[in-house]
């Protein structure tokens, strides 16, 4: 735990002469950085005690960590008091810059599905700039952002052509497998067209051949001859009850719209996921929300949360709303609030089954029974849409 506080972020009185003057704080994905902050919220007392005594908590039993920390850990009561003073405050707004005062920006991916973490990162960092520097996965590195300090909504990644052999499948919303007939549709790196969307296909040095990564990218331009892409969404992340189809981008936008109703209560959505519940007749969408309530005396009411459910429905496509209003083939959308820390437990479960902690992303749609059971066991309240979304035969998009 002591490794959370490197020398260059000590208070001025404790900073060594050779310390750096500024540095970023970051993680690969925004969710990973927020998980580290949550860990600090839960364990800052033990951290301060370790620093004060110059010893490690007994819970840390990894020999390599113990050996490493034994070489650098020394009693520092003044730093321990500083941590206690900052972390014991009820308000954690700006905690990153309060503990790491030399932090100038956050180095973290906040494009695609990670964009929904931006308000929470702004809260904990006091509004520090967000730098999205790279586009990569466990398969290989794909590209770099040559303008890392631009707004997250403006991020474009320049493909690194020496990392793999890149091909692009023109995006067809309902395409299935990469069959022999679809092979001619593959477009080479230099032949993509600005404004069009493609699914990324890679052949790697490690042996993957024409592997479909599952990312949908939009071409925004070229740097020299290398194309630049904006990450649009993951492919085929859908909710569906009847003839409706809701993808990740639409769901995220709907959640963002509904969360606006929480602003006056100083509350935000920390995490969410969903699934299509077809056990009921008719089936309905279920959205799991974990909230960050910054003022417990002014938390959103049952009525407000029900209105959030309706606001999500209002933001979904006309096929969904037609099913709700005209055909009654879809039931009222349901928000299930879960306990704080639920999505950390979900991550722990995924890692226990072999997921990489560096590559883990919260799934936006789930249907694996053990995961839904875990989520349902942490539900504290449920909130159904109180009415029907607007729809007429003329309201189509």
UniProtKB/TrEMBL annotation:
Q: What protein am I looking at?
A: Uncharacterized protein
Protein origin, superkingdom: Eukaryota
Q: Which residues form the GH3 middle domain?
A: 157-234
Similarity-based family: Belongs to the IAA-amido conjugating enzyme family.
GH3 C-terminal domain location = 250-368
What Pfam families would the database entry show?
Answer: GH3, GH3_C, GH3_M
Its Gene Ontology cellular component terms are:
cytoplasm
The entry lists its GO molecular-function terms as: acid-amino acid ligase activity
Q: Which UniProt keywords apply?
A: Ligase
What is the source species?
Hevea brasiliensis (Para rubber tree)
